[in-house]
Amino acid sequence: MNLNRAHDWSPLKSPKAISLPAESSPKEPALMRELRESRPSLNGHRATQTGEQNNVTYNREASSEAMSLIRLIVPTEVTHDTVCELGELRNVQFKDLNPDVNPFQRSFVGEIRRLDEMARRVRFIRDQIEKEADKIQIRPADESIPLVSVGQGLPQATDALEVKLRDHEQRLIQMNESYQTLSDRARELIEARHVLRETTSFFNKPQDRGQEIRASIDDSSQPLLAHDEHEFQIQQSGNTTLDLEFIAGTVDSSRLAVFERILWRVLRGNLYMNYINIPEPFKDPVTQVESRKSVFLIFVHGEYLLTKVRKVADSMGATLHGIDADAQRRTEALKEINTRLEDLQIVLYNTGTTRREELVRVAESILSWQEFVRREKVIYETLNLFNYDARRKTLIAEGWCPTRDIVAIQLALRHATPLTYLKEESGASVPPILQVLTTNQKPPTYHRTNKFTEGYQTLIDSYGIATYQEVNPGLFAVVTFPFLFAVMFGDIGHGFIVLMAALYMIYNERKFMKTKNDEVPNHIHFKRKFNIYAEFLPQLLFLQSIFGYLVICIIVKWSTDWSKATTQPPSLLNMLIYMFLSPGSVKPEEQLFRQQKLLQIVLLVLAAICVPWMLCAKPYFLWKEMKAHAAGYSRIELRDDAVLRNEEEGEVVAATGADPDDEHDFSEVIVHQVIHTIEFCLGCISNTASYLRLWALSLAHAQLSAVLWNMTIGPFLKPAGILDFVFLIAVFLLWAGATIGVLCLMEGLSAFLHALRLHWVEANGKHYEAGGYPFRPLTFDETEA
C-alpha cells in the first residue's frame, strides 16, 4: 500500500484533443467535424510537454518514460485497421472500458469464436505435419505469401482462409481414416499370413511336435498336458486328419504368459499350446506406437472346450483366424492373402503419398495462416475493451502511451484511416480523434531498453516494477552487477573462459533466437519534499554515525604504519561492538586517534535521536496533509459534475479519478512507519554485514581452485615415463572438466545469485519503492504478448 498522498501523475496540466489533419467532407457528421476542428494542434501539446519535462532533467536518463492517458474516438468503419496499426506500433496499452460485461456478452464474441475454430484447425493441421515420420520442412511466415490483413479485402481473405482450412481439415481427416482402415486391414492380413505359415510349419513336422509338451506354469515338474503322443492321432496320407480341434490366432507378446496361465487353469490342463513370436513389430498409424504380436496354436478336445478358449482369447484381446485343417486349402489361402496384401500395400503407399503431398503444400503457408489468425484474434479481443457510443456511432478507447510517442500514434491513425474508410466509397473521410486526458490515476512504468540493458532491467523488474518515474535501479545495475559478480568470481583465467562463452553466444545470437539508486530526486519529483527531512536525512545520519564511522576507522588503520607504532593494530570489529556495549570507554592500546571516546558518544547520541525522528516526523507531516486533503473534497466533487456536463455536450473529458492506492487512514500510516523504522534499523546491521559475502566467495573460489589443482594435475606435471604421460592426459581431462563444470558454471551461478541478492535485498530494499505496474502495450509479437 502506498501511504503517500495522491500525486498528480499527469505530465499535462490541461486536457487536449489531437485529431488527424484531414479535409472536411460535406457528408461528415457535424459532431465529428466540430470535435476535429475545435481542438488545438499537436505542436501545442508537444511544446507544453517539453517545457514541463525540463523541470526534472534526470527523467530522460534515469527514470521511466513520461506517460499520457489518451482517448481515441474511432469510427466503426476503421476500428479494425486502427487497432492493427497500433498493434504494429506497440506503444499503446488499452484499458478495459467494459469491466462489468461478461466476456461472452461483448460485441465481438462471434468473431472471436470463429477465429478460435480457425485456430483449432490450424493446430490440427500443424500437428499432422509434425507427426510425419519423414520431417516436412515448414516455411517461415516471412517467406510465405502474405494475407490481406487490413482494408476492404480483409473479409474476403478471412472467408477464403476459413474455407481453405475447413477443406484441408476434412481431406486430412478423410485420408487419416482411410489410412487407418487400410492399415488395420493390412495388419490383419499380415497376422493371418503369419498364422498360416506357422500352422503349416507345425503340421508339416508332426514327428517333431509329438514330444513338445508345454510345462505347467504353476508346477514346472508337470507337463502342460498329461497326454502322450497317442492323444492326437496324426496321420499323414496326403491329407492331415486330427482327432483334436484346434484354434489359431495372434495376441500381444506382453500378454502371452498371462494368456497361457489362464487357459491352463480354465481348461485344467486339457490343452496343447504352441506359439512363436512374430519378428517384425506392428506400428499404429495414428499413435505411432509399436507393438509386438505372437502366433498361437491351441489343440483341445471337443466343441465345449473350444468355446472356452474363444472366450478367454476374446477377453485377452487376441485375434482369432479361421484356419482350415486341409493343407491344400491352407496353401491356397496363403497365396490369396499374399495377393491381397500386395494390392493393399500399393493402395496404402498411394494414400500415404497423397497425404504427404497435401501436408507439404500446407506446410508452405501454415505459419502465415497461424500468424494471421492469431493477429485477428488479438485485434478483436482488443476491440472488446472498447466502448460503443451509439449516438456517435463510434468506438471509444482509452489507454496509456509514452508521451513522446503521441506523434507516432497520430501518424499510425492517419495511415489506418484511408485503408478501408475511403472517401470514394462512403462519401466521408472522418479520421479518428485522439484526446489527451488529465488524470490522477497512476500510469504504468515503461523503460526503453536495448539488447544490452534489457537483461539488467529484467533482473530489477523481477524484484519489483519501479514506481512511475522513480529513479530506475536498472541503469546503475549495468555497472554494479558486473562489478560485484567479478569481485566474488575473482579469477582472471576462469573469467576469460566465461568471456569466450559469452562471445560465442553473441556470435550465434540469431541462431539461438530461432530455437545503486539516488533517493532524493524521487522525493522531489513525487512532490514529497517532507520525506527528505522526515525520512532520508535521519536514515543517512543513522547509517553514517555507525558504519560511516567504521569506514573512517578502516582508512585510519590502513594509513597507519604499525611497524613504527607503540601499540598493535586494534580489532575494528571489537571496537564497534564495545562502542555499544561500553559507550565512552576505549582501551589505550586500541585507541586510533585522540578524542575517539568523545566522538563515539556523540555518534551514539545522534543515532539514538534518529530513531524517534524516523518514527514520528513522517506520520506528523502525513497527518497534516490528510487534513488539508480532506478539506478539498467538496471542490473536487463540484469540478467532477462540471466535467460530466461537458462530456454530455461533446467536450473533452479530463479524468480526475484518484488512485485507489492512495486511500488510507492515519492508523495505517503509524503501523507502516513503525514497521519501516524497525526494519531499517535492523537492516543497517544485517545488510551491511551481508556484503562480507564479497570477501567470502572470492576467498572460497581461490581456495577451491588451489585444492582442485593440487589434487589433480599438480602432482603429474613432471612425468618420468610413458605411463606418467598417460596419467597426465587423463588427469588433465579431469581437471579441465572440473574447472569448467565446478569453477566456472557452479561458482559462476553462485556469484550470480549472490550479486542478485545484494541488489534485491541490500540495495533495493533501502532505496527502491517498486510500487508500479508494467507497461504492456498492444503487440502482435507472440513472445512479448
TrEMBL record:
Q: One of this protein's GO BP terms?
A: vacuolar acidification
Where is this chain's protein located in or outside the cell? Membrane
Primary location class: membrane
Which keywords, in A-to-Z order, does the entry hold?
Answer: Coiled coil, Hydrogen ion transport, Ion transport, Membrane, Transmembrane, Transmembrane helix, Transport
Question: Which Pfam families would you find in this protein's record?
Answer: V_ATPase_I (PF01496)
Q: Which domain of life is it from?
A: Eukaryota
- Give start-end ranges for the coiled-coil region(s): 115-185
Locations of Basic and acidic residues compositional bias? 1-10
GO terms assigned for molecular function = ATPase binding; proton-transporting ATPase activity, rotational mechanism
Q: Which GO terms describe its cellular component?
A: fungal-type vacuole membrane; vacuolar proton-transporting V-type ATPase, V0 domain
Its membrane topology: Multi-pass membrane protein
**Region entry Disordered: which residue ranges?**
1-27
Question: What is its biological role?
Answer: Essential component of the vacuolar proton pump (V-ATPase), a multimeric enzyme that catalyzes the translocation of protons across the membranes. Required for assembly and activity of the V-ATPase.
Family membership, please give it: Belongs to the V-ATPase 116 kDa subunit family.
PANTHER family for this protein:
V-TYPE PROTON ATPASE SUBUNIT A, VACUOLAR PROTON ATPASES
Protein name as annotated = V-type proton ATPase subunit a
The record lists the organism as: Clathrus columnatus
Q: What is the lineage of its organism?
A: Eukaryota, Fungi, Dikarya, Basidiomycota, Agaricomycotina
